[in-house]
Amino acid sequence: MSNRLLDKRILITGAAQGIGLAIAKAFAREGASLFLIDRDEALLHEEAAKLKGEGYQVGARSADITDAKAIVAAVAEAETEIGRINALVNNAGVNVFSEPLETSDEEWNRCFDINLKGAWNCSKAVLPGLIEQGGGVILNIASTHAFTIIPHTFPYPLAKHALLGMTKSLGLEYAPKNVRVNALAPGYVATQKVIDYWNSFPDPEAAKAETMKLHPGGRIATPEEIAMAAVFMISDECPFMNATCLTVDGGLSVQQHPA
After folding, report:
1. What is the distance between the alpha carbons of residues 167 and 243, in angstroms, rounded to a whole number?
2. 122 part of a folded domain
3. How many domains in the chain?
4. 68 and 105 share a domain?
5. Active-site residue identified among 56, 156, 174, 188
6. 187: buried, middle or exposed (CB in 10 Å: 19+, 13-18, 0-12)?
7. How far is 204 from 195, CA to CA, in rounded Å?
8. Most buried of the four, 13, 162, 170, 176, by CB within 10 Å?
């Protein structure tokens, strides 16, 4: 631990597993105080208890990010438990992949409610406090889907493109208030969701091999690699980085064709 995030009081959504949990662990090791939010109440409190058991300052509350009132209440609880929030990681999200004309209204609403509206609900809840304190950081976990299109994944890329637009808009709007708003765009990451995707095929190992072949380095990211990029973006090591997006995908999005 190098205390890169000492004095940071950070709210993280979707923090019970995957990238969100990896970010929480990395932030805790770097000295941050954390408040974790997830819809999976049992898993959330299990993971929060583990971090507390290791001596880290961690609070947690189960909440649905699409419920603005629930998020306001969660922020109030966070400030009681760990102090005024000065950084937010909007990590919670959901994959909604379909053909455009086969996308139901329910799928469309679910995609945008969680991937965009939820991030705005959380941002809106913390922004007044960040401004009053004289600054802070919001980090949106986007995706390479935020600037590339893969057929048959509608409407997920639309929501992630919009999230990147919100990142830029808020970053410019609140730069005079010393609030930085950035995005982090992972490509494929070895989370349980990706493993479940491979396992949905008749030959999971072949599906995994196809995914690996897409990447110039022949592998995908670990959640911990994404988490360390998040440490940098939340830290004071990049004070002039604002309204932009850092891509961490091993070069996936810049090649025209896989090797």
Report:
1. 6
2. yes
3. 2
4. yes
5. 156
6. buried
7. 9
8. 13
Strands 33-38 and 9-13: parallel
* 151 and 198 assigned to the same domain: no
Closest CA to 160 of 181, 178, 145: 145
Chain mean position to CA 10: 13
* 3 inside domain: no
What is the DSSP-derived secondary structure letter of residue 218?
S
pLDDT 10s digit of each residue in the chain, 259 long? Answer: 689 999 999 999 999 999 999 999 999 999 999 999 999 999 999 999 999 999 999 999 999 999 999 999 999 999 999 999 999 999 999 999 999 999 999 999 999 999 999 999 999 999 999 999 999 999 999 999 999 999 999 999 999 999 999 999 999 999 999 999 999 999 999 999 899 999 999 999 999 999 999 999 999 999 999 999 999 999 999 999 999 999 999 999 998 877 6
Tell me the two tokens of residue 64.
């649905």
Which amino acid is located at 149 in the chain? I
Task: Please check whether residue 31 lies inside any domain of the structure.
Answer: yes
Strand order in the sheet with 58-62: 58-62, 33-38, 9-13, 87-90, 136-141, 179-186, 245-248
Alpha-carbon span 244 to 228, nearest angstrom: 18
256 falls within a domain: no
Shared domain for 234 and 204, answered yes or no, is no
CATH number at residue 55: 3.40.50.720
Q: Tell whether 97 and 111 lie within a shared domain.
A: yes
Segments forming the whole domain that contains residue 196 = 191-220
DSSP category for residue 214: T
Residue 140 amino acid letter: N
Q: Give, for 84, the enclosing helix (H) or strand (E).
A: none
Active site residue 174: no
pTM strictly above 0.90: yes
Residue found by looking up tokens 């022949």 in the block: 218
